[in-house]
Amino acid sequence: MPSDFDNTPSTLIKGDFTSAEEPFGLFGQWLDEAKKTEINDPTALSLATVDDDGMPDVRMVLLKDHDEAGFVFYTNFESAKGREILHSRKAAMGFHWKSLRRQVRIRGNVEIVSADEANAYFATRPRGSRIGAWASKQSRPLESKYALEKEVAKYTAKFGVSTIPRPEYWSGFRVVPIEIEFWKDGAFRLHDRLLFSRKNVDEPWSITRLYP
Prior knowledge:
Helix content: 25-40%
CATH topology: Pnp Oxidase, Chain A
Strand content: 25-35%
Number of helices: 5
Shape: elongated
Order of helices and strands: HEEEEHEEHHHEEE
């Protein structure tokens, strides 16, 4: 984690977010600030899932939308993460903005975005990425780089200059949070941590300050 700062003890427990009453506005503020300071991919997050054997799995994905309904990313549903999420309908996310020395951790249940949402986002992707969604059998064994290039060429020829439709197996997941924790680096490892939690989406948020 980030190194200690040369701060005086009187500043150790002060934070810039502890008066927040709900997490979504605070997350949006932090993400906006990260977009100004992070060199690459401020929307990058670690996505944690569990496979059928209970073995944890983690990888990096990009956040594509967020609001009070949840946090959205897109993927091939036949990929490892897609299969694992469809099985458990649960996931966790972790954001780390090194330039700001901040983290956000999210845990929740997962739902599939609507077809209209998925179609609208898919249409915004570069044409090569849309072809790649058809060509890649994500997470499955690949015999050679040439085999992938051959699939790309096949779908490039198939669609030509026409509109490329979204594959049925490619869509979005929305993580609906039951916990969101904000972490801000503090001097001498006395970090600020604020946890928002609820049992379900119909309940108000409970706010708890945590020990570092």
